[in-house]
User: Which sequence fits this backbone?
């Protein structure tokens, strides 16, 4: 997101690998993320600060996600008392899901979570996470100085996208090469106002960094790569 005030999200997850993956993915979606490894610390944070959304693992040490939410809802002075909450856990059956909804969770998500599942769940609760525009002219002009400079940068950017598409087609992006290309692309996309592609690159980078299955994120990125190139003319 590029709004003045980003979505502020509390993540409570005790597994360090899952916590890192989810935090990176959420930041790629435009959220400001406060991550905690135990329920008591997460509860203290939710009492002190106003969050737009809570993502709570049910098996947290100290205080599980369900107990955390119950304590938060019961605290009339908690800053995030009324924030929507998502439960996460492995092996959720229908009865457990119903009990979690009755306990005040907006939804319950099965682990392991994919980036696509996480994004759809967030979008269902936070309409502000709607698709970004392919090209944001105002943002490009502001980033590059003026409209003429933005047009010049976009001509260069179009060539970069052509080269990147060719690298994908020739299977040249192996090992760490894709990480480096994504890093450079995100900076260029920002200057050119290519919001959707910058967002997709952030998601793909977060997935690769965490060692997760990047199939969905990669397909989404390549689709937006083609669409952005066409929009540039």
Assistant:
């Amino acid at each position: 997101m590029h709004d003045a005030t980003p979505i502020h999200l509390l993540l409570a997850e005790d597994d360090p690998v899952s916590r890192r993956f989810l935090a990176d993915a959420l930041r790629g979606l435009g959220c400001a993320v406060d991550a905690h490894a135990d329920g008591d610390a997460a509860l203290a944070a939710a009492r002190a600060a106003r969050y737009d959304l809570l993502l709570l693992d049910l098996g947290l040490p100290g205080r599980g996600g369900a107990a955390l939410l119950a304590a938060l809802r019961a605290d009339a002075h908690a800053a995030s008392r009324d924030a929507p909450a998502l439960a996460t856990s492995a092996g959720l059956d229908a009865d457990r899901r119903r009990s979690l909804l009755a306990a005040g969770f907006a939804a319950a998500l099965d682990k392991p979570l994919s980036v696509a599942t996480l994004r759809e769940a967030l979008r269902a609760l936070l309409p502000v996470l709607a698709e970004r525009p392919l090209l944001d002219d105002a943002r490009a002009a502001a980033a590059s100085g003026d409209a003429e400079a933005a047009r010049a940068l976009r001509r260069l950017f179009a060539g970069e996208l052509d080269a990147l598409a060719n690298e994908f087609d020739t299977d040249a992006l192996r090992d760490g090469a894709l990480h480096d290309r994504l890093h450079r692309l995100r900076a260029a996309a920002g200057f050119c106002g290519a919001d959707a592609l910058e967002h997709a690159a952030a998601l793909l980078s977060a997935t690769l960094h965490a060692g997760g299955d990047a199939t969905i994120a990669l397909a989404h990125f390549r689709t937006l790569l083609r669409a952005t190139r066409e929009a540039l003319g």
Q: What stands out?
A: The longest helix spans residues 147-169. Residues 137-232 form one domain.
